Amino acid sequence: QARMWAYAVGFTVLPHVGGFLGWLINRKEIPLWYEKLKKPSWCPPRKIFPVAWTVLYTGMGYASYLVWNDLGGCSSKAVVPLGLYGAQLALNWLWPPFFFGARNLRLALIDILCLDGLVIGTMCSWYHINKIAMLLMVPYLGWLAMATCLTIHIWKDNPEQKPGKSE
């Protein structure tokens, strides 16, 4: 029983690791660069993002534990559903370095569009394994839809500077 509790906590905490590292590495770019970008009026306030991501990472992490547990751990049946989950998590963690670190709006947009597809694929693969796990991903997909639209608007409204040109 204690071992299963430890697994549940580990799976639940895992997504937060990349999210925290992304924030830690890129936190200085937010006031210096992000605040100056042209954003749509419906862009959420900056203070909402850490709260939203804490809730979303917790939900997706616990959902991945439910799937892992239902499939009996790291079995051959778990390769596709947890592989899709791992791939989407990697793309999720890559978005902040692309967007804030490299300030590459085009690459961030490509990343988040691929991320959207992988999250939908993950949810579809989880549907027959554990419907609660799949439903725990719904708020994440909703937030990603908003984040994708926001990324598209920021990319369109903030043309990237060519090397050698000043603002």
From TrEMBL:
<feature type="transmembrane region" description="Helical">
    <location>
        <begin position="135"/>
        <end position="155"/>
    </location>
</feature>
<comment type="similarity">
    <text>Belongs to the TspO/BZRP family.</text>
</comment>
<dbReference type="InterPro" id="IPR038330">
    <property type="entry name" value="TspO/MBR-related_sf"/>
</dbReference>
<feature type="transmembrane region" description="Helical">
    <location>
        <begin position="107"/>
        <end position="129"/>
    </location>
</feature>
<dbReference type="GO" id="GO:0005741">
    <property type="term" value="C:mitochondrial outer membrane"/>
</dbReference>
<protein>
    <submittedName>
        <fullName>TSPO protein</fullName>
    </submittedName>
</protein>
<keyword id="KW-1133">Transmembrane helix</keyword>
<feature type="transmembrane region" description="Helical">
    <location>
        <begin position="78"/>
        <end position="95"/>
    </location>
</feature>
<keyword id="KW-0812">Transmembrane</keyword>
<feature type="transmembrane region" description="Helical">
    <location>
        <begin position="47"/>
        <end position="66"/>
    </location>
</feature>
<keyword id="KW-0472">Membrane</keyword>
<dbReference type="Pfam" id="PF03073">
    <property type="entry name" value="TspO_MBR"/>
</dbReference>
<dbReference type="InterPro" id="IPR004307">
    <property type="entry name" value="TspO_MBR"/>
</dbReference>
<feature type="transmembrane region" description="Helical">
    <location>
        <begin position="6"/>
        <end position="26"/>
    </location>
</feature>
